[in-house]
Recover the amino acids of this structure.
């Protein structure tokens, strides 16, 4: 791609670093911004920069938050002894949309994936086990996607909880193998949270 402006070329190069955005789309977006009032670009830059600088992760559940303890963890109306274990923030959003889970969350930040070099210590597992050890939580709901990595992660956590008094369940029903949780439709997802099954019962013999 030949540019008559180095400034435009730099902008296009930066925009095209984003996932799913090729050079052509980046050019279209850059030209779009050039047609808009200058303030619009300033607002975009400001919003992105504020998000990057000031956004926090909840100190309890690792969900994204503007304050130390996220809105879900600090809501007194939530059931604080049932914790739903999810891979990432998008899963929290998907489950919140179903309105079927009144408890709290624990965001792992990924799944165990040896192929990509992601081990248990790269995830928020220690803080989850510590949380369970404090003895207040009655039930953990594993809501990871039914992929091999999701199953491996569930099982790893399950083993870490050995000897601790905690009920573990999984939302196996309704989410087919290989389906990512974030893509499950709300009704199916909501139903599978309500009809969750004991985790041990879900293990293949
Ligand atoms: Zn939280």
């Amino acid at each position: 791609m030949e540019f008559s402006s180095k400034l435009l070329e730099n902008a296009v190069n930066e925009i095209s670093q984003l996932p799913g955005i090729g050079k052509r789309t980046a050019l279209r977006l850059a030209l779009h911004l050039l047609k808009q009032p200058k303030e619009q670009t300033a607002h975009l830059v400001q919003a992105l920069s504020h998000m990057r600088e000031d956004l926090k992760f909840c100190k309890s559940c690792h969900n994204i938050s503007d304050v130390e303890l996220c809105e879900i963890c600090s809501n007194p109306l939530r059931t604080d002894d049932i914790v739903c274990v999810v891979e990432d923030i998008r899963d929290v959003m998907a489950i919140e949309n179903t309105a079927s889970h009144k408890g709290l969350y624990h965001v792992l930040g990924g799944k165990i994936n040896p192929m990509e070099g992601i081990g248990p210590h790269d995830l928020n597992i220690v803080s989850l086990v510590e949380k369970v050890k404090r003895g207040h939580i009655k039930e953990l709901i594993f809501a990871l996607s039914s992929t091999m990595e999701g199953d491996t992660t569930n099982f790893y956590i399950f083993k870490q909880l050995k000897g601790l008094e905690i009920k573990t369940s999984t939302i196996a029903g309704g989410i087919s193998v290989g389906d990512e949780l974030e893509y499950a439709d709300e009704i199916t997802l909501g139903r599978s949270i309500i009809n969750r099954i004991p985790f041990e019962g879900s293990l293949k013999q």
Remarks:
- The pocket of zinc ion is lined by residues 58, 60-61, 63, 69-70, 72-73 (CB under 6 Å).
- The first helix runs from residue 6 to 15.
